[in-house]
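Marked as duplicate of an earlier ticket. Keeping the data here for the record.
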Amino acid sequence: MPRRLPRILVSLALAGMAAAASSAAWATSLRAAPAAATTLTVYLAPASKGGSDQHTGLSPASPVLTLARAQQVLQQRKPSGDVQIRIDQGTYVAGQTRWTFYVPGHTISFLPINYVIGHGRPPGGDPAFVDTSSHGTRTAGWWLQAQEPASGPLRDGGTTGLRFYYLRIEDYTNGVSLDGQAGHASQSHGMYIRPSIGVNGNWISGMTFSDIGDQFAPGQIGFGAILLTDSSGNHITNNTFDHIENASATAGKIHGIYVTHFSSSNTITANLFTTISSFAVKVRDRSNFNDVTRNRFNATGGSSAYRDEFCDAACVRANPGTARQCASYGNGFFSNTIGTVFGGTAKQNAWSLSPPGLTYAGGSGCSIPRGQQRLRTGGNT
């Protein structure tokens, strides 16, 4: 008859077997689990610091010179995680960049080389992008225009996850365009319609937009330091808009921030607007639930600091060929500080609507949900 092992020895043996099995299973799960995607960093430096588009951009010792080249590097590397474009201090002389590269579910950040996200403006000055017009050659256009890619998972729009921090944009006709419609209006029976999901979920913080408009870079009409076209869920905070001006013939067409055509649920908070030749913030055409709070306005144009505007049937009759639009609703304008009018000493009005009417939707085909109105206001001084 075989001898029985003591109970304690049996228990220890079973425990050892269980531990070994657990360790083996843990090791197998580690081998099976996909590796976490790492952040890919691309480095920019001005020509004075060795930046060249012949470089790889993948180390501070091999920085590229332009955002166009940085985008090529990303297209070649095909990152699967977050991206940072680290930009050395200095001045970059650059024309317009059309941006179409995104990583679904991840962010692409444009930021100074020494910036720690969440820690405020870094020392050494903001990297400055200057349109070539100030250097003798006119290149009218946008500093950066983000659009949907021609192919891939975001070809019909979605969350593009661009992040802009502490850069200076100067002497361009326009600043940043987040364009979910690639600049093309779509119409059905004379009504402006939405052709895509949009370019959404971006962040613009700590930026300085200075000398923006056709007053400084003629050749095209200036529309805005920031233009949102079918672009929703963006955060625009703690930026400075200084001298956003068009020449006299087009002075009323440019704005600090222009929110248009289905651009909803954006937050515009704690920005400084000073010396704007037209409305500092303008909202148009079914752009709903945008919150404009705790901003400062000084020397801004138009009849008010904030403008809600759209083109109804009467507007179309007066402007043949213009697509008909509908009112926006659910927007808020709260706790803002209103200063003087552009070019004068009188205090600016806080807000205005065109066509008038807090509950006017725009006629047949347009509607405002029950309980909503075009604008809610309060606490503005």
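See parent ticket for discussion. The first strand starts at residue 40 and ends at 44.
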